[in-house]
Amino acid sequence: MKGFEHLIPSIDLPAPDDRHVAAAIHGRASLIVTFNLKNFPADTLTRSHAITCSHSIQTTAAFSTRE
What burial letters (b/e) apply to 41-51, b meaning 16+ CB within 10 Å? Predict the structure, then answer.
């Protein structure tokens, strides 16, 4: 994906290497699936960008129960 680089300076997350969140914002993602929820504060992403974060194990379980 290209065109998200201008968003990187505005991303305020605990881990400075989480620049890929700018790509998620640019791509209008609604969900980020991760093992590391502490680096993706729900209040920041939901309030500012309407993105929900989910632990990968919970997400996998939710999708595996669908028919």
Answer: eeebbeeebeb
